[in-house]
Each structure stands twice: as structure tokens, then as C-alpha cells.
């Protein structure tokens, strides 16, 4: 039988309330685990524990694993975009060749220490399992290590940064680790289901925690708001780690022996209060589009999955159908095994990323008379709601086939916002931003045969804005875009300008 390894983890609510004390407790724990082969013991303990849990808890863990893979992927994607944006925005503000890496290296160890602690504590206070996962990151999430040498943090970034950000990542990137890589390689070919899940669960939890911590360290460093990590409500009443009764008993004994009965009582009460707070932040969401449910009963359940007590929710019939095609048919109504859990997480959710809401013509605001060209555009969009806009190769309508344009998700959201405003009110600034997005599209896809002049002419006609006015606005946007090597559409940059403002306000805090 595996050695029973029981620690009293510094409670997660302490990370928020008294981060320094919490961090000191963790430092003690790190010293303890450094004296023996921690990864092996930890792994054996988890395997032992998982072999004793009931089958439905094992299924729950597989589902949680699958959703961890997916959310970590999204998190890392957002992180690399944020770094790119912050770096360029600070270039904009300071008018120097400064970037994030240089600023971090230039900061003093004391400044780095402050932000490292804020970032790590914020990440660990998100949820129980993330707090406890800090013990799996004894190399990475050490405040002293991150502050003494600025390169430590930058190396963590480079291990997850992606060269190509034009498409969505399908798998998270992992942080190499001298202590875990050995355990990983010795069990890499294990065909034992429990061992496979335990090992991969450890790795993904580590990856997620480090990614959230990095995100928060950068945000704190630039004076931005810390990220709010959403917690997903699972159908089963089970939250936290699926510990067996024997394990809970052992934990209680240790805490009582080490800290006394009174302290144990306080510990229990605080944990209960913190759990309550945690549960109030959980929400149910549509498996396909991610839309949050006001109440769980408002969403439809997959019936085949409900039969095996797995809750899969959808906001609409369309979402259910789309999800079926991309991934759900793989796992519907079937008990999961490790490979299925992994596959269902990494299937590219390209189509699922596009909300299926159809184009509905917005009503024109009083005083805005839509030109015929705009009405024609709206007609075209209504017939193919999956497309975002139609560009014409010539301004004469008639026999030509207009090109349907589809924007990638991170641009689409901003494009649609301005499209709606322009179509409703004829707002010239929004129309210019639409135009800028279309021009960006032609720059990226030179083969479409669309020309800059024609697009400007088209938008000018659709929203009755004189070409010269439109060109003036576009010149301004061009200048903004030129600050970014990838020259993203101005709508995207402007959407991130609140970061810029936050940065200017908090600009002096790394002196
Ligand atoms: Zn949905
Ligand atoms: Zn199903």
C-alpha cells in the first residue's frame, strides 16, 4: 500500500485575506517536501486514493479533466494576446522601444516580489483545487525565485508563448519541470486508466495554476484589474477533491494532532464560509457557446447523458446540434475513459466559436435614412447570417458576385458592435471602423481581388459619408495600427484602450 501522505494545506481563503502569512505557510511546506521524493509519493497517494473512489466520481474527474484542458487552452491564448497588447500599448504611451520583458527586468527585486505575491495569491484564491495545486508548483510559484531573477518569469512565458496567434490553440502548452518530468516519463506509457488520469490531471492543474498566476502578475505589474476566473457548476454535489472517508479522517487526525481541537474547529468554520462564497460564484453554462444560465432549469439537458448522471446543458437547439457535430457525439451517453476525455477537450471548436444568432435587421434610429446600398447589404446578410459583411469588387451593383467576409472570433465581436451602431445610427466613426476592419481583411487575404479604393467607396455609399471624411478617419486609424507589428484592426486596439488608461494611471508604480 502506498504511504499515506497528508499535509495541512494553507487554506485558500487566507491567500486573499492575508497573502503574506499564507505564503509563509507554503514556504514551510515546500521545505518539508524538498526532503524526500515528493512527486513519487504524491503520485502514489493520488493513485491509491483514486482506486478507492466510486466509479461515478472517477467519471466526474474525467469530465473535470476535460474541462481543465479546454479552459487552460483559452487562458493561455488570452495571456499571449494580453502580453502582446500590453507591450505595444506601453510603447504607445512611453514612445520608447520599451517592452514588457525589459520593464520587468528593469524593476527592482522588491517590486517584482510585490507583484509576484499578488499574482500567485490571486490565482490560488480562485478555488480550492487551484490553491492546493500550488504544492505541485514548488519550482515555479515561489515568490523569492520570481523576484530575485527576472528571467525566471520570462522563461515561463516563453515556454507557453505561441508563434502563430492567427488560429486558436487546440492544446495547452506545458511548463517543463525538473521534478515532474521524471514522473511523467516513467509513467508515460502506462495503460492503467487511473494512473493516466492522475498523472495528466496533476500536469494540467499545474499548468492552469501557473498560467493564471502569470496572467495576474502581469496585470498587477501594469496596474490592470486582475482577471476574474469563472467557476463552472457541475451537476454532482461533489466539489473539490474526491477524497475518500478514510482520507478525510486521516486529514482530520493530522490537523487535530498538530494544531489542537480548537484550531481545527476554526479551520472547519472558515473553510465552510469560504466554500459558501465559492459556490455563490459558480454558474452553469451552455456547453457549446458558453452562455451563462440564469437558472439551470432554463437550459435543455442532453437526455442520453442525463441517464448516466452527466449534466450537459445547452441554451438552444442550434447549440446542441452544433456541439453534437464537433464533439459531443464522441462521448454522448457513454462513460468516459481517459482518451475520450482528452479527445473531447482538444477537438478544435472552430464552428462552436461562432454564435449562431442570425442577423436581424436593426431598426434605424430617428433621423437616419438608410441609403439603398445599405439596405442591399442588409438583405445579403440576412440571407447568409454566418457571414459578417459583403464587399463588392465594383461599386455598381448588379451582375457581380460580392465577396462574403468572415472575421476571426477575436475581431468579429468588435466588428459586429460597430456594424450594429453604424447600421442603426449611421455613426461615421463606427462606419470608419467597419471600413478599417474590411481593409485589414483585404491586407490579410490579398488573393480576394478586393481593392482599398473600392471598399472605401462602398462604405462611403452605404453610410452616406463623404469619401474625404472617411479617408481622414482611416488615416488616424492607420497611425494607431502602425504601432503594432501585426497591424490589427483599429476596433480591436480601441477595445483594449481601457488597459492603456489603467496603465497610465498606475504608470509609476514600478519605480
Ligand atoms: Zn449556446
Ligand atoms: Zn449527451
From TrEMBL:
The keyword Zinc-finger applies. GO terms for molecular function: zinc ion binding. The keyword Magnesium does not apply. Residues 286-332 form the MYND-type domain. Gene3D superfamilies: 6.10.140.2220. It comes from the Eukaryota. Keywords: Metal-binding, Zinc, Zinc-finger. This is MYND-type domain-containing protein. It comes from Gymnopilus dilepis. The lineage of its organism: Eukaryota, Fungi, Dikarya, Basidiomycota, Agaricomycotina.
Amino acid at each position: 500500500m502506498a504511504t499515506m501522505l497528508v499535509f495541512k494545506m494553507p487554506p485558500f481563503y487566507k491567500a486573499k485575506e492575508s497573502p503574506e502569512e499564507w505564503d509563509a505557510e507554503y514556504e514551510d511546506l515546500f521545505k518539508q517536501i524538498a526532503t524526500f521524493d515528493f512527486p513519487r509519493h504524491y503520485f502514489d497517494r493520488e493513485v491509491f486514493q483514486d482506486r478507492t473512489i466510486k466509479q461515478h466520481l472517477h467519471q466526474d474527474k474525467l469530465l473535470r479533466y476535460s474541462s481543465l484542458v479546454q479552459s487552460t487552452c483559452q487562458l493561455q491564448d488570452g495571456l499571449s494576446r494580453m502580453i502582446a497588447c500590453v507591450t505595444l500599448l506601453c510603447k504607445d504611451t512611453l514612445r520608447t522601444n520599451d517592452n514588457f520583458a525589459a520593464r520587468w527586468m528593469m524593476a527592482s527585486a522588491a517590486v517584482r516580489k510585490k507583484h509576484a505575491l499578488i499574482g500567485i495569491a490571486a490565482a490560488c484564491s480562485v478555488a480550492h483545487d487551484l490553491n492546493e495545486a500550488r504544492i505541485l508548483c514548488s519550482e515555479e510559484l515561489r515568490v523569492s525565485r520570481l523576484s530575485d531573477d527576472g528571467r525566471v518569469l520570462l522563461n515561463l512565458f516563453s515556454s507557453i508563448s505561441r508563434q502563430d496567434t492567427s488560429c486558436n490553440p487546440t492544446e495547452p502548452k506545458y511548463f517543463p519541470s525538473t521534478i515532474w518530468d521524471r514522473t511523467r516519463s516513467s509513467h508515460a506509457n502506462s495503460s492503467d486508466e487511473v494512473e493516466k488520469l492522475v498523472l495528466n490531471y496533476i500536469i494540467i492543474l499545474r499548468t492552469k495554476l501557473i498560467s493564471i498566476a502569470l496572467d495576474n502578475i502581469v496585470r498587477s505589474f501594469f496596474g490592470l484589474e486582475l482577471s476574474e476566473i469563472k467557476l463552472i457548476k457541475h451537476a454532482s454535489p461533489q466539489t473539490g477533491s474526491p477524497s475518500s472517508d478514510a482520507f478525510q479522517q486521516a486529514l482530520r487526525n493530522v490537523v487535530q494532532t498538530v494544531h489542537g481541537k480548537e484550531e481545527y474547529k476554526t479551520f472547519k468554520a472558515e473553510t465552510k464560509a469560504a466554500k459558501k462564497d465559492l459556490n455563490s460564484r459558480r454558474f452553469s453554462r451552455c456547453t457549446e457557446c458558453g452562455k451563462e444560465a440564469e437558472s439551470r432549469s432554463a437550459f435543455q439537458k442532453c437526455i442520453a447523458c442525463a441517464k448516466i448522471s452527466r449534466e450537459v446543458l445547452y441554451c438552444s437547439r442550434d447549440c446542441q446540434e452544433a456541439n453534437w457535430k464537433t464533439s459531443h457525439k464522441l462521448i454522448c451517453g457513454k462513460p468516459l475513459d481517459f482518451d475520450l476525455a482528452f479527445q473531447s477537450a482538444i477537438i478544435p471548436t472552430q464552428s462552436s466559436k461562432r454564435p449562431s444568432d442570425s442577423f436581424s435587421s436593426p431598426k434605424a434610429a430617428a433621423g437616419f435614412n438608410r441609403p439603398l446600398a445599405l439596405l442591399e447589404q442588409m438583405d445579403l446578410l440576412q440571407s447568409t447570417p454566418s457571414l459578417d459583411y459583403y464587399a463588392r469588387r465594383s461599386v455598381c451593383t448588379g451582375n457581380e458576385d460580392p465577396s462574403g467576409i468572415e472575421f476571426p472570433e477575436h475581431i468579429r465581436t468588435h466588428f459586429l458592435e460597430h456594424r450594429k451602431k453604424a447600421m442603426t445610427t449611421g455613426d461615421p466613426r463606427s462606419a470608419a471602423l467597419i471600413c478599417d476592419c474590411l481593409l485589414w481583411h483585404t491586407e490579410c487575404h490579398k488573393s480576394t481581388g478586393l481593392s482599398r479604393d473600392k471598399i472605401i467607396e462602398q462604405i462611403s455609399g452605404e453610410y452616406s459619408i463623404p469619401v474625404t471624411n472617411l479617408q481622414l478617419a482611416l488615416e488616424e486609424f492607420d497611425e494607431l495600427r502602425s504601432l503594432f507589428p501585426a497591424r490589427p484592426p483599429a476596433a480591436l486596439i480601441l477595445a483594449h484602450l481601457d488597459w492603456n488608461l489603467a496603465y497610465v494611471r498606475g504608470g509609476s508604480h514600478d519605480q
